[in-house]
Amino acid sequence: MNWFYSENGAQKGPVDDATFRALVSNGTIHPDTLVWREGMTDWSPLSAAAPELAPAGAPPPRSAGAPPPLSTGAAPAVPAAAGAPIPEGTVPNHLVGAILSTLCSSVCCCLPGIPAIVYAAQVNGRLAAGDLEGARRASSNANVWMWIAFGIGIAVWAVNIASVLLSLPQIVQAAEEARAAAGG
């Protein structure tokens, strides 16, 4: 049976039983290292998943709070830092830019900015859940939609300003005719 283990927050494996036991023996895998193998529902510390392999006097297992494995039989994503949340700020959420681009594009309609705000709002939640890859995807999507909304907003503003500038001589002429007609 193949094992997967977490090393510095990265998933390692699969490794066979003999290799896994050697990694435990040489200290690469220690009692609180998160491990997973087919048949387990969550990542668990070695001391809980295979107590017979953990060195004597190992600390009691901690709750990993990891997601269940994929149905394909592949190992689930390793929770960051043994299930600890990833600090906010490690992945930009683009929320301010998303809001500003939505306001900029609100002249025509704010629809392109809405996905930017939705994706931006997902980043910190995914980081708190330990889903670094999901946070990076949400950040990337927020950035793309932010620039789309900003581009549409700038284009619409440019068209509006150009139309006002092009019609300005007609407005001035109409105002002068109205003044001349009123003044006699």
Q: Can you put this structure into words, describing what you see?
A:
The protein has 184 residues and is of the alpha+beta class. The protein folds into 2 domains: 3-83, no CATH class; 95-183, no CATH class. The protein is built from 5 helices and 4 strands. It has a 4-stranded antiparallel β-sheet with strand order 2-1-3-4. Strand 3 and strand 4 form a beta hairpin. Helix 3 runs antiparallel to helix 4, helix 3 runs parallel beside helix 5 and helix 4 packs antiparallel against helix 5. The longest helix has 52 residues, at 132-183. It is rod-shaped. Mean pLDDT is 77; it is low at 58-73.
Work out the helix count. Answer: 5
Whole-angstrom Rg: 29 Å
Task: Estimate percent helicity.
Answer: 40-55%
Q: Which regions contain 5 or more consecutive residues with pLDDT less than 50? A: 58-73
> How many structural domains in the coordinates?
2
Distance between the termini: 101 Å
Mean pLDDT: 77
Strand portion = 5-15%
Please provide the ordered H/E string of secondary-structure elements. Answer: EEHEEHHHH
Order of adjacent strands in the largest pleated sheet = 2-1-3-4
Number of strands: 4
Write the layout of secondary structure elements.
Elements: E1 3-7, E2 10-15, H1 17-25, E3 34-37, E4 44-45, H2 46-49, H3 95-104, H4 113-128, H5 132-183
Antiparallel strand pairs: 1-2, 1-3, 3-4
Helix pairs in contact: 3-4, 3-5, 4-5
Keywords:
about 180 residues, alpha+beta, 4-stranded antiparallel beta sheet, about 10% strand
Report a brief summary of the structure.
With 184 residues, the chain is α+β, with helices and mostly antiparallel strands. The protein has five helices and four strands, in the order ββαββαααα. The protein folds into two domains: 3-83, no CATH class; 95-183, no CATH class.
